Amino acid sequence: MARPFRFGVQMGTLPTEGWEERARRIESLGYSTLFFPDHFTPQLDPVVAMTAAASVTERLNVGALVFGVDYRHPVVYAKLAASLHLLSGGRHEFGLGAGWMQTDYDEAGIAYDAPGIRIDRLGEALEIIHSMWTQDRTTFVGDHYRVENIARAAGSSDGSRPKTIVGGGGRRLLSVAARWADIVGVNPALPTGRVEPDTPADLTPERVLEKLSWIREAAEAAGRDPDEIELSSLSFMVAITDQGATIREGIGQGLGMTEEEVAGCPLFLVGTGDEIQDQLVARREQLGISYVVISTEDIGIAEQFAEAVVKPLSGR
Asked: Using alpha carbons only, what angle is made at residue 117 by residues 67 and 142, rounded to the nearest 5 degrees?
């Protein structure tokens, strides 16, 4: 049975005046979650932004898409996530990734280790965090972290915890996600630390199917039911238009992709509302992706997408 659709919107900023209305507007449009990225670009701090948004809404989930593992210690992540989960009434979705944007590391003076090291660090961090959410005391000794008899994170005493989101594009990272995450974001691989012209080609339907096979294999190896994992996608271009084919063809020419490959790539949602609805239903049937997140700073685009796609499909 197909998992019902959910939708999220990612924004790096909220208006200085009227941010409360912006958060409430996103909630009223039917989005399940408001996400914030975690980079050192001119954007809001995600912890502060999530807390503020949760304080003025009633149903809207809040999350970071995603925190960088090297930007804060896992003990700090465990405490802040458990606290926000408690004070928001269970509306925090905790996203954590291995870190990918090299400019963040360079500008902040953080060592940009090889991908394998960062992914290993992510696995250790998730083990510590989940233990601090479920155990009275946690001791952990790994290659990257050492924790000595630390107390359970406040807010987890009743056994509840935030849902965990881990996204990735390579086999090793997706295998970590399959072991720990409630929600796995199926992303393109970013081995160079930046978005390249050929990055979208890593999310053709064929490539996504391969990534899903890695997720299933790793989940089963960890003793998990792969069907219990919610799969998500993140779209960076949204255009509700009756000129979809023409726009997709233009995108493809710039990326070395066919119009059909652009249409099948989760990074792009271009077409009429009905076309995008059909596309997402077909993608869910073929790939199992039911949690669709768009990234935009334009509330007008979020409103248009909500009317054309979110409201007709949410919960279906």
From this structure: 90
Mean pLDDT value across residues 97-107: 97
Where do we find the tokens 């995603």?
Answer: 66
Query: What's the rounded Cα separation, in Å, for the pair 254 and 10?
Result: 25
Using a 10 angstrom Cβ sphere, with 0-12 exposed, 13-18 middle and 19 or more buried, the burial of residue 126 is: buried
**Both structure tokens of 118:** 């960062």
3-state secondary structure labels for all residues of 145-180? CEEEEEECCCCCCCCCCCEEEEEECCHHHHHHHHHH
Tokens found for residue 252: 């493809």
Q: Which of 23, 30, 161 has the alpha carbon at shortest distance from 90?
A: 161
CATH number of 6-97+162-313: 3.20.20.30
- pTM to 2 decimals? 0.97
In contact, 295 and 234? CB cutoff 8 Å: yes
Output the 3-class SS for 265-315: CCCEEEECHHHHHHHHHHHHHHHCEEEEEEECCCHHHHHHHHHHHHHHHEC
Is the pLDDT at 156 greater than 80, yes or no? no
Summarize pLDDT for 159-172 with one digit per residue, the tens: 789 999 999 999 99
Question: What is d(CA 172, CA 19) in angstroms, rounded to the nearest whole number?
Answer: 39
CB of 33 closer than 8 Å to CB of 4: no
Measured between alpha carbons, how far is 140 from 150 in angstroms, rounded to an integer? 9
CB 62 within 8 A of CB 53: yes
| Cα–Cα nearest to 166, from 235, 67, 74 | 67
For strand 137-141 and strand 146-151, is the pairing parallel, antiparallel, or unpaired? antiparallel
What per-residue confidence (pLDDT) applies to 157?
Answer: 66
